[in-house]
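Hey team,

Filing this mostly as a record. A colleague (T.K.) asked me to run one chain through the structure pipeline before their review meeting, and I want the input and output archived in the tracker in case anyone asks later how it was produced. No errors, nothing strange. Just documentation.

Input sequence:
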Amino acid sequence: MARLAGVDLARALAVFGMYTVHIGPPLGAVDGVAGWLRYLADGRSSVLFATLAGFSLVLIAGRLEPKTGLAGRQAKVRIAIRAAILLALGTVLAMAYGDVVILAFYGVYFLLAMPLLRLRARTLAIIAGVLAVVTPQLAFVLRSLLTEPVTATINAFDPLKKLSDVGVLDLLLTGLYPTITWMPFVITGMALGRLDLVARTVWPRLAALGAALMAVGYGTPYLAAMVFDGAAAALAEQSAAMLKMGMDSGPKSFDSGSGMMRPDQLGSPWSLLTAGPHSGTTFDIIGSLGVAITVIVCATVALDRLPRLRRLATPVIAVGTMSLTAYVGHFVVSSLVSVPKGTSTQDSWVPLICFVVGVTVFAWTWTRFFRRGPLEYLLHAATIPAKYVRSGAR
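Output structure:
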């Protein structure tokens, strides 16, 4: 199916983007087109990943028509099981590698998205839009109330915090992918999943929407900086901080570095008018969603209109069909082969290229013999008990 192949291609691009952030040269070490691509991957690749996660939820719960009755209940159980496994897997990876892993956050996203599984595309889009406007301001206020004693007290009673660097407070509010400001990505993905992406009449509207969101999300902060001195100062401060973190962290920092601004690093209220990667502002959310929608539409259209490209892209599409394996695998392989830790002068793309080629060859070879990736098989097997859910009282 063209629509699913396009989604798998977009998912593969998200994986490669996250590889770029984790393994590629740090920000500031490369310039030109390569530097632009390196900057584009920051934040946007994980947003695309999260948006496609929402799309996947709708695949389980029913694409154009939501499942109801017994089938609907079984779908919810499958999603709940997946959420628990991803939360556990993300925590284990964080314990093993000492970094922030997005999978734990996915577990929370999935649980919170379950009440929305039967909503239509328009309703989901409205909810995502409202959350994109409201939650960044709410998160800023809530984080300002978290003094060190309050945070220490919460973390002291948090079992997850005792296991890894990511506790409940990080998952919900202060982490790199805080649920409060990342749910708009997941819900937007659910809305996209409810659309008939095969219908060519949908493509121009989605393309226009993606372009408009990017223009508003990334253009408004620069316009604000031209008008308000506070906005200009916040934009300059954020740009300098991103560059410094990128130069200091290097490619081996995984999700916790490589130039990413943590939401709790936002300074004055003027910073809410910026759109830096992972800043969690309204404009960051809007612009990143524009990028995600554009990538999904372009991938879908390209595979539909260019059959030869679809054949050539088959190995890459295979990566998208096993994105969980590809994502977890790069943590494991990186630790085994000792990927060099980057410095401010490290500008080699060789490790990244090796990882991209390696996972593509592995995925393409695997899919010639198996329907699902290794971890995807395990995740599917874990959800089999959902079929034993029976209808409730009539």
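Quick notes for T.K.: Residues 307 and 313 are 10 Å apart (CA to CA). The two ends are 37 Å apart (CA to CA).
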